[in-house]
Design brief:
Layout lengths: L11 H8 L13 H12 L10 E6 L1 H15 L4 H16 L2 E7 L2 H9 L5 H28 L3 E2 L9 H7 L6 E9 L22
Antiparallel strand pairs: 1-2, 2-4, 3-4
Helix pairs in contact: 1-6, 2-6, 3-4, 5-6
The structure holds flavin mononucleotide (FMN).
């Protein structure tokens, strides 16, 4: 089979995918409850293994957001340079965003799956945990794309995984598994973002 050309199909969905960029600083413009509801609805439409939908979304604003900024800043000093710089950057993004959404895995798929497979082995745990993480990652991507489609900006902050226990405690989700923290707001300025690798370097066609 010949390599598929990068064809110029253009529609609104593809435009949204192409326009999504990680934006790390936000303007003062508030984000409406309606917009937050819309992007959460989109996140909740994601596919999930065994249709377990084992995700939870925590919307963080006001005082709780300030507490999160303080937590991230205070913990940053305990890490070596690269990670402490990223944690500080993350705290600035959280501080500047009018709203932040945390995505948490509930562990329901792991529980359901190991029961269904009637095996409590390490392999079953590893399998269902991976499926749960992948399902929630699909939800996160839906959320990012829905936000982009509304003119909102986001950044997926994975670095807070380094302080996940403290973050989950602060959010009142101590039993959950940390997936992502996502500041949401209107961009203070749009950036082009990094170039993606050319398809010919990452795609292999087999026939
Ligand atoms: C799992 C994951 C974790 C990420 N964690 C961070 C992070 O902690 N801090 C950050 O600034 N960006 C983070 N990003 C955003 C990436 O840096 C960004 O997606 C990448 O540089 C490509 O840029 P783009 O999103 O504009 O295409 C993360 C992205 C993913 C998918």
């Amino acid at each position: 089979m010949e390599a598929i050309e990068q064809r110029p199909i253009i529609n609104e969905t593809l435009k949204t995918i192409a326009h999504r960029r990680s934006i790390r600083m936000f303007s003062d413009q508030p984000v409406s409850d309606e917009a937050i509801g819309t992007i959460l609805q989109a996140a909740n439409q994601a596919p999930s293994a065994h249709n377990q939908q084992s995700w939870r979304f925590i919307v963080i604003r006001g005082n709780k957001k300030r507490e999160l900024v303080e937590l991230v800043n205070s913990k940053a000093a305990q890490f070596p340079k690269a990670s402490s710089v990223l944690l500080r950057m993350a705290s600035r993004s959280i501080a500047s965003a009018p709203a932040v959404i945390a995505v948490i895995n509930t562990g329901e798929l792991i529980e359901h799956g190991t029961h269904l497979f009637n095996m409590a082995s390490e392999q079953a745990y590893d399998f269902f945990r991976t499926m749960e993480i992948q399902s929630s990652a699909a939800a996160v991507q839906n959320l990012l794309l829905a936000a982009t489609s509304l003119g909102l900006a986001t950044v997926w902050l994975g670095i807070l995984f380094l302080i996940k226990d403290e973050v989950l405690e602060l959010l009142g989700e101590p039993k959950g598994e940390f997936m992502a923290v996502i500041p949401v707001g209107y961009p203070s300025k749009m950036t082009k973002g990094p170039e993606k690798r050319p398809l010919e370097t990452i795609v292999k066609y087999l026939d």
